Amino acid sequence: METRTEELTEEIVKRSAWITTVKLEIGKVVVGQQKLISRLILSLLCKGHVLLEGVPGLAKTLSVKALAGTMHAEFSRIQFTPDLLPADLIGTMIYNPELRQFSPKKGPIFANLILADEINRAPAKVQSALLEAMQERQVTLGETTHVLPNPFLVLATQNPIEQEGTYQLPEAQLDRFLFKVIVDYPSRDEELQVLALMGSTDPVPSTAPVVDVRDIEDSRSLVNKIFLDPAVQNYIVDLVRTTRSPEKVDRSLAGMVRAGASPRATINIALASKALAFTHHRSYVTPQDVKDLAHDILRHRILLSYEAEAANVTADDVIDRILSKVPVP
User: Fold this and answer.
1) Which end of the chain is more exposed for a tag (fewer CB within 10 A), N or C?
2) What does the pLDDT average to over 59-77?
């Protein structure tokens, strides 16, 4: 058994070498934001979508474009606006008068990496079209269903401050995002580095392709082999179930949550924990892996009550209290 574990660990170290290369390449363009970059790489390993939330100017778009530049893959950026139509996203059917028939004209969503900039500015019909693509990884044009490329990831951004001309994302769509990452301001030293790197009219640095889609696919097969102890499985289930009735572990949370996380959160925490262990060159998941990922996976899946909003209690506050109360194996 130990021999198999050692062999798996050696294979993980070998197959995960591209992660260090990608991080170094992104570091040529993006200063700091290590957590953001880590979550983007985890999303590649888990085939999960990411929602980035932060005020303008924090390198959300730049980070996604930098990641796309390190891959031999197709990349599309879509700027979401209130007048956007589903056809602008997925494409439409074009009539050919010579052939007297309709043929599909595929939209920008037919790419491996999709940057959905300011995703909350698009109306419901566009969100509905995007939801099919995110969940089913397919698009319907006319009477034909077209399979999207593999991998297919939606990396979306939204501004939490400006609400004019925006639409709140439906809970069903939020649940399709593996992570919701809160992007914060850089430290003072990091901001000085940003100034040194970008404070001129010289061309902005760009990343070079250093990883192939095949390398990522091979890494995913190893992620599935990482050991998840039954005790850690029970811990994950207990955490997610507690979000539905948090008052059972903390009476101060009574009436604060309208709805907790779904079983999709349980699956996502388990898968992302394996991917995090992979990036740390481990063949097993630890409870700390689960705790490190809990906020980014659960914060957009917990619906707070009006009482919580009135008391200025956030989803992160609820998660903090749950993590402090649920016994760690």
Assistant:
1) N
2) 85
